[in-house]
Amino acid sequence: MDAKPQPAAGAEAPALRRVLGLPLLVFYGLGVTVGAGIFALIGEILGLAGDFSPFVFLVAAVLAGASAGSYAFLSGRFPKAAGAAVYAMAGFGPGLARITGVGVAVTGVVSAGVVSLAFGSYLGTLVPVPSWLLAVGLLAALTVVACLGVRESIVLAAGVTIVEVGTLLVVIGAGLPELGDAALWSRIATFPDAASLGVVLAATTVAFYAFIGFEDIVNMAEETRRPERVMAWAVIITLVVTTLVYLAVASIAVAVGDDAPIATSDAPMADMFAALTGGSPAPIAAIAAVAMINGVLIQIVMASRVLYGMAREGLIGPSWLGVVQPRRQTPVNATLVVAAVIAALVLVLPMVRLAEVTSYITLAVFTVVNLSLWRLSRRSAERGSRFRASWGFAAATLTIGILVADIVRRTGALG
What range defines the domain where residue 65 resides? Predict the structure, then answer.
């Protein structure tokens, strides 16, 4: 393996530019968490859980919050771009750290490939251009943005995030009158009985993936001002805002579920908006396509920082992956490698099965991070270490449980 990149004698190696504060980090987190997925996922949740949909999202938020707490604890102690890989190295050594870091990068690359293809397919219905060419064109444009600078990338992502979340708030606003129905609250507040627990569990494992994305925030640590204080707050605020939005959307979906075929719709959020307002669903569907752009950009930025950070820590080679472009202060080499791999996946491999595998990799990474917190805290005599150790162990137990439940769900054992 190549050694860590070293500057020339008497020179200081260029570093990533620390330009991000709490607001931009939160927009980054919301952009990757409240992405295009919720625009389609709400229909699947409603179809599985029905009136229990808000309860399902609340339980999923608690499950995600357990791992988010581990990331919040560790990001302050190890504010490094490689994020989970650095936590794994501190807890278990370089072997597991390499596997963890590669796993994180793989999830970002595959996710970006899947979303790029989805964008190409959507746009291909509007313009006479092959979907693969549109997907590669999107990748090329967003790679240029990612190379220009982290501020430019995150500002663009923040702008799209405002549009995404703003659209969801418009849908919520249109549905607020529906939430005044006392009978609706009686239905929503009913706790699942024994006969319903199976489908509720299946729906919870689906809803959990709607919260994934907060963990990407920690990979921006070396481009953040005062990361030891800011990172944890960014993770927490992202998760809280996401939960509130999802609960409101799920409650409104239950309210209008009998009036519109949301559960079986290919564009459930758009159909929900049409049922609430009587207007055209087209604007909401278009926003979902715009959200895809955000998902690709954020994953390119995230995966490139993971490769850069691992190369700087000496966990992977070649060493030039850990080099920063002096003028732009971005990891251009790592960014170009990530973009090239995504393009190759788009052009060569079927993505559906890979996308399913990434969900398991993500849960495995969460488990490693949680166990790293547990192990590091057990070794520590610092105040609060016993609490952090208990938190990490409990969170790891939950992520293992979710992984097993999801495998069971996908194999059809839950119906």
Answer: 22-351
Sign of CA dihedral 97, 101, 20, 334: positive
Has residue 392 been placed in a domain? Answer: no
Cβ(101)–Cβ(316) below 8 Å: yes
Higher local confidence (pLDDT), 413 or 222: 222
Interacting residues of 302 by C-beta distance below 8 A, sequence separation 6+ = 32, 104, 108, 216, 219
Measured at the CA of 169, the angle between CA 250 and CA 215, to 5 degrees, comes to 70
pLDDT tens figures, 279-307: 888 787 777 777 778 888 888 999 999 99
In a 10 Å sphere around its CB, with 0-12 CB exposed, 13-18 middle and 19+ buried, how is residue 294 labelled? buried
- Give, as one character, the DSSP assignment of residue 224: B
The pLDDT-based confidence of 89 (bands split at 50, 70, 90) is very high
Task: Count Cβ atoms below 10 Å from residue 259 Cβ, excluding itself.
Answer: 11
Query: What total number of domains does the chain contain?
Result: 1
Q: Average pLDDT over the chain, rounded to whole?
A: 85
- The predicted-structure confidence for 364-396, as pLDDT tens digits, reads as follows 999 999 999 999 999 887 888 999 999 999 999
Partners of 200 in beta bridges: none
- C-alpha span between 387 and 71 (Å, rounded): 15
Tell me whether residue 274 is in a domain. Answer: yes
DSSP reduced 3-state for 134:
helix
CA dist., res. 26 & res. 203, Å (int): 27
Give the rounded distance of the alpha carbon of 301 from its chain centre: 12
Supply the CATH number for residue 155's domain: 1.20.1740.10
Domain presence at residue 217:
yes
**Residue 6 class from Cβ within 10 Å (0-12 exposed, 13-18 middle, 19+ buried)?**
exposed
Contacts of 375 (CB under 8 A, 6+ apart): 91, 92, 392
pLDDT computed for residue 351 by the predictor:
58
Bond into 318 cis (ω within 30): yes
Tell me the per-residue pLDDT of 157-179, one tens digit each, with 9 for 90 and over: 888 888 888 888 888 998 888 88
**Phi, psi (5° rounding) for residue 79?**
-80, 75
Nearest CA to 33 out of 300, 256, 236, 215 is that of 215
Q: Name the band, by pLDDT with cuts 50, 70 and 90, for residue 2.
A: very low
Handedness of CA 51, 55, 56, 57 (dihedral sign): positive
Residue 118 lies inside a defined structural domain of this protein: yes
